[in-house]
Amino acid sequence: EVQLLESGGGLIQPGGSLRLSCAASGFTFNNYAMSWVRQAPGKGLEWVSAISGSGGGTYYADSVKGRFTISRDNSKNTLYLQMNSLRAEDTAVYYCARKGPYGDYWYFDLWGRGTLVTVSS
Amino acid sequence: EILMTQSPATLSVSPGERVTLSCRASQSVSSNLAWYQQKPGQAPRLLLYGASTRATGIPAGFSGSGSGTEFTLTISSLQSEDFAVYYCQQYNIWPLTFGGGTKVEIK
Fold it and tell me: How far is A93 from chain B (nearest CA, A)?
């Protein structure tokens, strides 16, 4: 079955760090660019970060640049998001999403179920 | 950053009705626009990309149109399973941006 499964969320104090993981299965992981998208409670979707299939290209939203790092291990079919210096406004469900297969078109054709990150003292 | 504005924020509709949702971009995104459906407690699901191309498994009752800055998503006859929040997303220019969503609720 083609799926993405996030893990690593939880309650963390402001200023703390957390690493999210996304395990991919059912498709050739290294053929696909990937991304993280978050959703604050009761709010809309916000793109966070993206990475090319090889891992050589990375992109970040200004709101997380310098604090978050996206990476991938294609041997383990896993995507990561290292989150440092966490703030209350980072509280959200974090979704792992797969970029569509064609060209440089960054829409997302497969999503995980998400993992909740709560930043609070 | 391209601002995506969706209207209306909430739409109250009866089953069987035709629904049209709007998405406007603050500058041209060509046809690099996607639509997603999200039900409570679930992940978003891709409906359309390229403004008008249905994703795999999406029924023909969903259609999209537009280019540049004005886009619409039309549901021809609303079914019970279509009550959800709908988001548009532009992927023409980094950073990728989403609209604020339109909630389609039962009237």
Answer: 10
Contact B98, A46 (CB under 8 A): yes
| Contact yes or no for A44 and B87 at CB 8 A | yes
For residue A104, pLDDT beyond 90:
no
Residue A111 has pLDDT above 90, yes or no: yes
Nearest CA in chain A to B5: A44
SS3 B29: coil
- Is A27 in CB contact (< 8 Å) with chain B? no
Task: Answer with the residue of higher pLDDT: A75 or A101.
Answer: A75
Using pLDDT thresholds of 50, 70 and 90, give the confidence band for residue A103. Answer: confident
Residues A53, A78: Cα–Cα separation, whole Å: 11
Q: How many CB pairs under 8 A join A and B?
A: 59
> Which stretches of chain B sit within 8 Å of chain A by CB?
1, 32, 34, 36, 38, 42-46, 49-50, 55-56, 87, 89, 91, 94-101
SS3 A77: coil
Element at A97 (helix H, strand E): strand A92-99
Burial class (CB in 10 A: 0-12, 13-18, 19+), B100: middle
**Whether residue A102 has pLDDT greater than 90:** no
